[in-house]
Amino acid sequence: MAARPFATEPREVTMNDIARAAGVARSTVSRILNDVSTNVPVAPETRARVLEAARGLGYRPNPQARALRGAPTMLLGAIVRDITDPFFAGAIEALSTVARARDYNIVLGHAHAQANEALALAAMLEARQCDALVLLGDMRDQPALIEDLRLSRAPAVALWQGTELPGIAAVDVDNRCGIEQALAHLRSLGHHRIAFVGSRLQGDIRERREAFVGALALEGQPIELVGLEVANTPADGVAAVRALMALELPPTAVVASTDVIAAGILHGAAGLGLRVPDDLSVVGFDDIAMAAYFVPALTTIRMPTDVMVAAALDLALGAVGVSPDARSKEHRVFRPDLIVRASTAPPRSFKGPA
Amino acid sequence: MAARPFATEPREVTMNDIARAAGVARSTVSRILNDVSTNVPVAPETRARVLEAARGLGYRPNPQARALRGAPTMLLGAIVRDITDPFFAGAIEALSTVARARDYNIVLGHAHAQANEALALAAMLEARQCDALVLLGDMRDQPALIEDLRLSRAPAVALWQGTELPGIAAVDVDNRCGIEQALAHLRSLGHHRIAFVGSRLQGDIRERREAFVGALALEGQPIELVGLEVANTPADGVAAVRALMALELPPTAVVASTDVIAAGILHGAAGLGLRVPDDLSVVGFDDIAMAAYFVPALTTIRMPTDVMVAAALDLALGAVGVSPDARSKEHRVFRPDLIVRASTAPPRSFKGPA
DNA sequence: CTGAAAGCGCTAACAC
DNA sequence: GTGTTAGCGCTTTCAG
Questions:
Q1: Residue B1 scores a pLDDT above 50
Q2: Is A129 exposed, middle or buried (0-12, 13-18, 19+ CB in 10 A)?
Q3: CA–CA distance, B172 with A353 (Å, rounded to integer)
Q4: pTM of the prediction?
Q5: Which of chain C's bases lie under 7 Å from a protein CB?
Q6: Which of A237, A137, A232, A162 is nearest to A195 (CA)?
Q7: Which among A57, A178, A285, B351 has the fewest CB atoms less than 10 Å away?
Q8: Pairing of strands A194-197, A253-256
Q9: Residues in CB range of A166: below 8 A, 6 or more apart
Q10: Tell me, in Å, how far CA of B32 is from C1' of D15?
């Protein structure tokens, strides 16, 4: 067989084919298949014939044609910096689940802090294939994206942005509340020298850091901060705990800005011959699926991820009774909870409440 | 302002608008914007005028209209059972990266072994919004999906399917090779009682299990298998190690079918007061990002994920010089490597090579 | 070199 | 009840 320039695709079955097969007009087929019987009556006999033909021919509606007529694409864009981050992986899963319940699919636009970062995102917007967009995590370092977002017709919602993006609806966690719970827990165990590990640069993490500083400053407690430039990786958690433990007066407890960093802290502590929680207490943030199976199981802050994701979707796709205009101004904040596990205990020197 | 039934969308800028602004015909605009200058010459003056108008009006091509004309959607469907699985999260990230290099975006179709499982997938195919599909992980328990896949016009590639799906191209890892490396490593350390943890039900994992059984049977070694029904979760890893250690003659080493299960084994071992690797050696499979930061760092089998994902994309989107027909019959297998870390050591009783 | 016209598959007025 | 018609935004002959 000679190679043809273009493969002759096995032509799609269209409404025309059904119309011909059933001996009716295309519009009739459309009416029946879309079940607009409420408005326009159709003879049951015709209906049966058309449905039969459609099934027999294996008809599948062409979404592009529908979209051209103004139908929604049923695609929801999810822009995330790093799918590999277990917390965001979980969030995407949750988002995908609630989206599916509305017959929406997720288009992934991972930002991946690379050189071409903004481009990937712009491409997605440019393509306008999505009915709405959800941003997961802090994107303020991608000004081009934010700008495009504003110009874009598709509504956008920022999840875990950790800050307000004027004109874009937001769903966030109360980071201060979470950090305060962690600190209250550690203090009740008798800890006085508590360190925080996490960058001051990125949204949520920055908020957590500020909450930490604020809370300790309020009480005149000594503050030990590490990692103005800590990345959200276990490797940087290892480096941080090494730095902390090399201090003249090392902390007895560490609050990590995320569970991923906490994993590194646990690993690094073990490498230094320290036992957690006896020699060092560790508190994480996020409660990723694995946190309960760290060695030891991690005490951490859990957010109502499912609820938050559902709220974001409501905002993005339009909950009943919420005008698009009002939506873009909304900023919903949810309260996290402390989950106490095995990585926290009274410090060694602690002999009971004063 | 009274509420209108439908918000008047800020009308998109179309080619007609440009044509009007530049005083040319729509077809001319199309030619210029698509740069088909090779075929049809266009007056430089006209070209400039049109480009100017397009930029000025902020024109963005409508992908649906293009698709209707037969253009590709530039969307790649990725069907994965569980995005939360760190290994697959990494794979999706890799896939997304190579896809982006070809201007493709990923549409997520997570299968999530629920009641509505097959539906989600069918919906995606039904929608035919994707130019090609990549299946990540074993999907044989979703026969409806597989069937749809065959009917679908979009080419599909199975990644880590762990078995052949007739008519669907596949990219896989040599599981036997990986398991044999793990066993060789453990034997060289002096282990004789080695257990395997992992279900016999699912694709890759089943292959790993069979490789394990085969290799040990060959040498008449005692075989300890756990988990005919082990799920790929840390929780089941914990249960497995408890069961193993309750045996009359517990193993001195465990091979886990995945790093996620290995995490549970490490956690469970610690809970039993066992020290890894002194009391028990543990080998994982996958080398997920966190594996190097487990306590202790996990010895595991690493696959060339990036290369495999790229191969899958080539197959799906059509590498140069490969006919669609030949592609669907391809089955490429890649070799994994053992990464030795801190979770393996000679067994306690071992006093050096015999 | 450029314009006119047809049509991708579908929906929605508007006839009859 | 059902058919006719127009048109969504775009590409692509085919005429000039």
A1: no
A2: buried
A3: 59
A4: 0.90
A5: 1-14
A6: A237
A7: B351
A8: parallel
A9: none
A10: 20
